[in-house]
Design brief:
35% of the residues lie in helices and 12% in strands. It is of the alpha/beta class. The chain has a single domain, classed as 3-Layer(aba) Sandwich (Cobalt-precorrin-4 Transmethylase, domain 1), CATH 3.40.1010.
């Protein structure tokens, strides 16, 4: 989602950097409401041939969760994980790659490690590739 917290366009930029490594992956964006993200996803798919989409509705997954068969849940956010589907992803044991651009005082070691990748799409792409293996 691209809003006060969401940084979907940075994630899309990262996908350009790792397109060859993710050529066989199904990439799905959730909670997209903005036209700029929809347009960027369409362009990414057209330019790279990646299987990247924004599901129209949950029925696409047989009424189940998009996380049931997910290999990774990745996001870049401004300074909060609020609004993400972290609990649902954890329920389905989906690995997480959640980067914050500005850390709270209670930042975890994982959040500290991902601080630079939250600002650098090429570096975030490297983390995507590592986590997808």
């Amino acid at each position: 989602m691209e809003d006060k917290q969401g940084r979907s366009l940075l994630v899309i930029s990262a996908l350009y950097h790792c397109r060859s490594e993710l050529s066989d992956a199904e990439i799905r964006f959730v909670d997209v409401s903005g036209g700029e993200v929809r347009g960027a996803v369409d362009l990414l798919r057209w330019e790279t041939g990646l299987d990247v989409r924004i599901p129209a509705d949950p029925s696409e997954y047989g009424g189940g969760s998009i996380f049931e068969s997910a290999s990774l849940y990745a996001a870049i956010r401004l300074n909060s994980l609020d609004g993400l589907h972290v609990a649902e992803a954890k329920f389905f044991k989906v690995p997480l790659l959640l980067a914050l651009q500005f850390l709270p005082q209670s930042a975890t070691s994982e959040q500290l490690v991902l601080l630079q990748p939250a600002h650098d799409p090429a570096l975030f792409a490297q983390y995507l590739i590592e986590r997808m293996r």
